[in-house]
Amino acid sequence: MATAVANCFFSVLTSSVKFRCCVSSQRYLATSHHSIASVTCKAVANHKRRPSSNRDRELKEGVSQKKSLRKSKDDDDGISGKRKAGGSQSAAFKSFGAQRKDKKEFKFDIKEQQVEPNNLKDAAFLDAVVKVYCTHTEPDYSLPWQKQRQYTSTGSAFMIGNGKLLTNAHCVEHHTQVKVKRRGDDTKYVAKVLARGVDCDIALLSVESEQFWEGAEPLEFGCLPRLQDAVTVVGYPLGGDTISVTKGVVSRIEVTSYAHGSSDLLGIQIDAAINPGNSGGPAFSDQGECIGVAFQVYRSEEVENIGYVIPTAVVSHFLNDYERNGRYTGFPSLGVLLQKLENPALRACLQVHSNEGVLVRRVEPTSDANRVLKEGDVIVSFDDVNVGCEGTVPFRSNERIAFRYLISQKFAGDVAELGIIRAGSFMKVKVVLNPRVHLVPYHVDGGQPSYLIIAGLVFTPLSEPLIEEECEDSIGLKLLAKSRYSLARFKGQQIVILSQVLANEVNFGYEEMSNQQVLKFNGTPIKNIRHLAHLVDSCKNKYLVFEFEDNYVVVLEREAASASSFHILKDYGIPSERSSDLLEPYVDSLDDNKVEVQDFGNSPVSNLEIGFDGLLWA
């Protein structure tokens, strides 16, 4: 019985892993029975696959699609729902950033109507759509001192004026070189990435060449479309080198899961074809106005023709954020876990006399809401907009939308006024909205993951790319649980793990250790990898004592460990014992009292919240 329960819980975790990791293998793409172009399995696998020097790795979003993401049903403002992925395992959101430029064999059985430019009201705007050629060099998260083998991809972008282009963030992820080419031109021009919004999957490019902009007319942004409005998707997808145009209608407008950033923002669902390489291309209305950016599709054996467009409201937020701050800061979060109040008895118990409001179940310790909100509060309004008992607010005429939509309209640092009911009394409080602090980040900023090597013990922070690269089985159940359901208790907190041990005489007996969280060094709880490096550097004791989960202890002689460093680095061809960011002086800006060693059982998010649609993040 215990084994059955454990297996059941592990299946829940691994399903959630597929949702959070957001990446599927290219062989998985080939198994889709609803591929719009009916590309053969061999063609797609060869088309998308890239080699690796160490192992058969999978492509990330920039050249592929996201793995097993569920349709978002929970109401939040951008913090991903922590629960079991819904639907069958074949269901997947996929970001189609580009197509690998390898030789390929494929055949077509075109089922989507290809729209000729002369059938459009105004074909001039097609010249503003360009093809993007990107060379990617991803970090090797398992061997963080080196890079993976580079690969190339293609995508789409379009001109927005002032010498700038707009595309998807996953199209230029881990870029080392970006080039663009205009329609009808055979010259490629070097582009610079000015900003990447991972959460909204948008990137801003610039091209300095004046020749590139000769005769160019930027696109005009339109308003949010209505249901059944005609929509035209333009880009450079799989199947040819020239521009492609497909047509459909607006099927749905709601808060949608963004596969690349694992966030939830306003999205437009359409039935026009979106294929690999379409990402970053514009979607037009019948009036020739750009209504958004194509960025992902939903694949399942049960559905077909479901594509997604980033609306101009999200695009404008990204651009305004960049103009305000000179960089992209991200969409803000309220930082609370909410529960719907649909049950009359629950509302009566909380002394809520109207059919509205959502219950505060958890408050993130790193959010400003932790200062003014308490568990058990009921949020009934946001900036004087009433919040319904299902966590929705009015949207346009005769429509409702998730409460988190209002939060996504704010910018980092903005103040929101919440109307709450606490113990039957109504009051108003003000909260500063800021981007969420992730304990385990979805994306690693900078070109290289942090790492520290001590006597062959390789320490690195836990991240979603590392989990993806190492695979779920090797990471282990406890780390998976913490990465999915634990919250950061203070800014800068990290889960530091021993990823592997580089065998040497000094670490004899520890060689089999891998992917275990280190909790303490010489009795001091570890805040993050910079803190660990500082503790080791300042240690004067005879022994280095590392305490891991499950009370596992590693002891090394300090002088022997220091003497072995040179030979270990030489034997394994490693340039440095630590990443460049750990060479900077350590500044302790964290409160020691906030450091806690917590097990999964003490996680701020309980097991009961896994797979329960009545709970939602905001």
TrEMBL record:
Gene3D superfamilies reported in the protein's UniProt record: 2.30.42.10, 3.20.190.20, Trypsin-like serine proteases
Biological process annotations from GO: proteolysis
CDD domains listed in its UniProt record: cpPDZ_Deg_HtrA-like
Keyword terms: Hydrolase, Protease, Serine protease
Entries under InterPro entries matching the protein: DEGP_PDZ (IPR041517), DEGP_PDZ_sf (IPR046449), PDZ_sf (IPR036034), Peptidase_S1_PA (IPR009003), Peptidase_S1_PA_chymotrypsin (IPR043504), Peptidase_S1C (IPR001940)
SUPFAM superfamilies (alphabetical): PDZ domain-like (SSF50156), Trypsin-like serine proteases (SSF50494)
Record region (Disordered): 47-98
Segments forming domain Protease Do-like PDZ: 440-581
Biased composition (Basic and acidic residues): 53-64
Family: Belongs to the peptidase S1C family.
Protein name: PROTEASE DO-LIKE 2 CHLOROPLASTIC
Species of origin: Salix viminalis
